[in-house]
Amino acid sequence: MTLISLTDLSANVQLPDGKLLTTVDRVNLEIEEGHSYSIMGRSGSGKTSLISIIGMLNMRVEGGYHYHGRNVRDLSDRERAKLRADKIGFVFQNYSLIAHMRVWENVALPLMYAKSVPRTELRPRALEALEEVGLAKRAHDYPSRLSGGEQQRVAIARALVSDPELMICDEPTGALDRSTGDRVMETLLTLISEKSVTLVMVTHDREIARMCENQLVMDVGRVRHV
Ligand SMILES: Nc1ncnc2c1ncn2[C@@H]1O[C@H](COP(=O)(O)OP(=O)(O)OP(=O)(O)O)[C@@H](O)[C@H]1O
Ligand SMILES: [Mg+2]
């Protein structure tokens, strides 16, 4: 089943001198449910721009974006925000954990926005997600007490806590050394395959890209399959 269908999708940004720069250029792409996709490409080729659109963070686009057959561009901001909170988990390069919140509180955050989760469920659900990434013991620590790899595993737990169907990652191992990055990837790939989550992941690392079933490359806004 097709989860996402992009048809002639383009986006541009206005530069300070008023000129338009095309960041995503007539992209046609089908993303199948439960499959994994990596996106490589040199710096500035439009990878983050593309996944921001796929993640519905930016909708100033031309062309078609259908999610489960629904035209995402027809949704109101509110409907789109709800769809995003219910269905999509995000992991970024810099973990983006909130320093003054404990690990479990960071993981529980999406539950406060997604679906209607009773307050009493927050902690058990967060602990369950932390258990899955092997970090239940660190639930009451603050993020700064954890290593980079551990912080990224917390970010993965946070992305998965609301049972998303799509996981979007932007260079999830970009700040980690080789072996830590590989272990984080192993955790990520195991969990998304167990839960049949669709994965779209930007990476600069060829070996990590190859761990995904489908490999895409971006080049000045255009996407091609490897
Ligand atoms: N808000 C913005 N204003 C101006 N230019 C932008 C903006 N967002 C992106 N760009 C430009 O659009 C192009 C694509 O950027 P994007 O961040 O998508 O690249 P990327 O492939 O993710 O690069 P990297 O590998 O360095 O993260 C770049 O030339 C970038 O400078
Ligand atoms: Mg980027």
How would you characterize this protein structure?
This protein is an alpha/beta fold and 226 residues long. It has a single domain, classed as P-loop containing nucleotide triphosphate hydrolases (Rossmann fold, 3-Layer(aba) Sandwich), CATH 3.40.50. It is built from 7 helices and 10 strands. A 6-stranded mixed beta sheet has the order 6-7-8-3-9-10, with helices on both faces. Strand 9 and strand 10 form a beta hairpin. Helix 3 packs across helix 4, helix 4 crosses helix 5 and helix 5 packs parallel to helix 6. It is globular. It starts with a strand and ends with a strand. The model has no long low-confidence stretch (mean pLDDT 95). Bound molecules: adenosine-5'-triphosphate and magnesium ion. Adenosine-5'-triphosphate binds next to strand 2 and helix 1. The site of magnesium ion (MG) has 3 residues, from helix 1. This is ABC transport system ATP-binding protein. InterPro entries: AAA+_ATPase, ABC_transporter-like_ATP-bd, ABC_transporter-like_CS, ABC_transpr_LolD-like, MacB-like_ATP-bd, P-loop_NTPase. GO terms for molecular function: ATP binding. Keywords: ATP-binding, Nucleotide-binding, Transport.
Whole-number tally of structural domains: 1
Order of helices and strands: EEEHEEHEHHHEHEHEE
Briefly note the CATH topology name: Rossmann fold
| Contiguous uncertain segments of 5+ residues | none
Radius of gyration: 17 Å
For the sheet with most strands, the description reads: 6 strands, mixed
Strand content: 25-35%
Cα-to-Cα separation, first versus last residue: 21 Å
Q: Which oligomeric state applies?
A: single chain
Name the overall outline: globular
Structural class: alpha/beta
Helical proportion, percent range: 25-40%
Highest CATH level, the class? Alpha Beta
Tell me what the CATH architecture is. Answer: 3-Layer(aba) Sandwich
Average residue pLDDT? 95
